[in-house]
Amino acid sequence: MGNERVEGQLLQQHIVHFPPYLMQKIFENVKEGIMITNVAGEILAVNAAFEFVTGYTCEEVLGKTPKILQSGVHTKDFYSNMWQSICATGEWQGEIWNRRKTKDIYPEWLNIFRVCSADGEHVYNCAIFTDLSERKHVESELEKRKSMDHLTDVSNRATFMQRLNGLLETSQSLHHVQHAVYFIDLDRFKQLNETLGHVNGDEVLMEIARRLRQTLHNKDSIARYGGDEFVIAVANVMSQHEALLHAENMKHVIEQSIDVGTHEVFVTASIGVSVYPSQASTAEELLHRAEKAMYYAKKQKDNRAVLYFDDLMIDGERVLLLDAELRKAIEQRAFEVHYQPKIDAQTSKLIGFEALVRWKNDALGIVSPAEFIPYAEDTGLIVPISEVIIQKVFEDAKRFSSLGLQSVPIAINISSLHFQHPNFCESLQQLVDEAQVDASHFELEVTERTVMNNAAETVATFHELRKLGFTLSIDDFGTGYSSLSYLVRFPLNTLKIDRSFIQQICMQEEKQAVVDAIIHMSHRLNMRVVAEGVEQLEQVELLRELGCDEIQGFYYSKPLSFEEAVKFAQAAL
């Protein structure tokens, strides 16, 4: 360091003896921009390179301060630290963003040092800078090449997975957030390449990528996954139905004609769709399921979008039809209610029914509740469907009563979404008033997970329902994560043990031990216990021995139509 300072001093002494015209020539022709100011910050001189880089002429900046170049990118602390360094050490160097006369901002490498006059009476600041715009542009292009597909100018596979993982990470703590992943494969693209040539094939790929990109928003992502494959992530979809509508829009833009040279080309695509978090929670699994759905779509050979739906492939057209027919069924009250008997475990007498929804549709045939209930919950249609079912149950209860069967209580399943609706209790009271029924003849069943989702609000809702006269039951107990001791705070009347425990109760001692514990602890909490899914005499006898109160299942009866339920009740009572 000492040697460098000595050499610098010797160089300065030598420069003093350079002719002034030589110094001026160097000043004018050096490629780096130079600006000299006095201690007050007034610009005294600039060179030609300064004028070229900044766009300002010498006359425009003389007498002004360097603030004329400030870009607004840096904070006050940045400039404060810069001048502290200059005052303390006599120099500063680093990267800085300045503004040209055209208002464009640009990066430069700036070196500022202080120079004293020969007599020591004057101090000047000399700034020498190099425009980094070209280097930054090259760096940006190199970075872009690492993350983008060079042909289509969309992301490559690695960048897409990185962005999708980031999207999922930010969604983990958010409730009710859904994202859709699409796997798109162009149909018969190999044949198009062989016919028109790879150059024209590339033109088609570029145009399709451009069209798909225009359908997306800022948080969405698109990438070229393979030769003729694209993957897309659409953030914040409201439902699986909306996810399919996006797929239909993608199909529409792909299928528009493409002019390639003298040819008019038409392309179709097979699209697979998966939805986070209902179908997968990781980027890899979402993409895998979307790809699986895409291959299923391609096998159909009818150019469709297919949604991966709980390990079941439901094609896009069926889901769209399902949505339309569900809405019609709500309006037309086209659902049927079947009734499964609940039997006293000790006396084998009928003590009630559970109401179960059934739907037969002209366009779709007999639609399983396992298909339309999850879809209705996903789209919010479950609330109006539930209200239709409750209305029908109330109507059937009055019909039971008119036939002398008024003493038979009916259990009604309440979906989690309906139970958590802000106006749930008020709408239920309105339905009771309209039907003119006694709420005490009905038991409302909610699942264990519904109860545990928001314990404080659940307690308040339960107390309100008890005031209306309903009895309350927790359904599918054992499938969630609650404990019986925690249920003390809920004003429940009945607990239903999930069928998964009952099916193995005669073969697995641990299942029997769990059921035994549930029954005894429930009785300590003054709750009756119902075993559902009972299909064998051995199960009935064991449950009776364990002290179970009620039994429900195919051993006694399948769910019955209203007319069949009337006959069953009349024979049993």
UniProtKB/TrEMBL annotation:
CDD domains reported in the protein's UniProt record: EAL, GGDEF, PAS
Domain called PAS: residue spans: 23-77
Start and end residues of each EAL domain: 319-573
Pfam family, one: GGDEF
Gene3D superfamilies: 3.30.70.270, EAL domain (3.20.20.450), PAS domain (3.30.450.20)
GGDEF domain: residues covered: 177-311
SMART domains, per database record: EAL, GGDEF, PAS
Protein name per its UniProtKB record: Diguanylate cyclase
